[in-house]
Amino acid sequence: MLTVYSEKHRLRDAKTELHGGTFVRPFECPERAEIVLARVRQEGLGEVIAPRDFGLAPVLKVHDPDFVRFLENCWEDWVAAGGEGEALPNVWPTRAMNGKRIPRSIDGKLGYYALAGETSISDGTWEAARAGADVVLTAAEHLLSGQGQSAFALSRPPGHHAAADQYGGYCFLNNAAIAAQFARDKGVERLAVLDVDFHHGNGTQNIFYRRDDVFFASLHGDPMDAFPHFLGHADELGEDAGEGFNLNFPLPPGTDYSRWRDALDEALARIVAFKPGLLVVSLGVDTFEQDPISFFKLKSDDFADYGARIGTAMKAVSVPALFVMEGGYAVSEIGINTVNVLIGFEGA
Ligand code: OKP
Ligand code: ZN
């Protein structure tokens, strides 16, 4: 399996995350990608290539231009306004103050474009996020040229919480959605996105919620108990043309592999019935029992087993799979767990 990787992910190296009322070093740190890459090499998964530059056009097919401009200029604007630490929002257009104008000041803009308050914007964040989009696009292009049944986009920072005009939950550009839309524009008529990260892929769901050409399925910690708290319920089925093309499996604290696997099998059956031309897997391994910010109980061997289940289901109907790296914060095991999924898929 081909892996696409860019060293530019290292430019996303924020010093602060707001966590439990204090600032901590972000859980989403550069070592994550380095350790996954080392494991890819150690296991001989296949060739590792750098991305090519796709420019912003495929990003702008998913994200609003004003949001992209905000991300591009945020750090500069923050510094110019006298920010001493990293850029964080502190006021939002919530229910009681639901204004529609985009403020001029950087403090107002941060609140307008942020969907969560833990994620600092730092010097280099934009460059890393942009390179991350090139990583998934390069991997998608490779698959679309008919080479292989699978590819791995080792992108960082993650993307699935990012909506068309909102960032947060460590995510800035929605890599999985950008890849799916790119494939769509290259002639793939129907796509499925399977999100196995512990957290609900609220951004991806929101981007495709009114569409019947992209089926979104997600297994995640119940939002009643887990981030992102406000989306990911089982009754969110899609709207308008998209009704019936969104599928959520919110699962309770302590969920173990047998329960998680039942949900996966159901999601895979629905995906197969949808007859996609390509599957995008939002691959977060924060379902691991030792993950520091999550509450599922998967063990390292379970990752290989579910990779094989995805492989068996997709190979039976000749659907290629694009794996896109999302979360996973048990850093010392992130390589083993991630590559177990990919090896499981290949062996199916
Ligand atoms: C990103 B991905 C911190 C609560 C905020 C944010 C989690 C973002 C996960 N006390 N947590 O889906 O792995
Ligand atoms: Zn996650």
From TrEMBL:
Coiled coil: none annotated. Residues 28-334 form the Histone deacetylase domain. Signal peptide: none annotated. The keyword Nucleotide-binding does not apply. The keyword Zinc applies. Gene3D superfamilies: Histone deacetylase domain. Keywords: Hydrolase, Metal-binding, Zinc. Pfam families: Hist_deacetyl. PANTHER family: HISTONE DEACETYLASE 8, HISTONE DEACETYLASE HDAC1-RELATED. This is Histone deacetylase family protein.
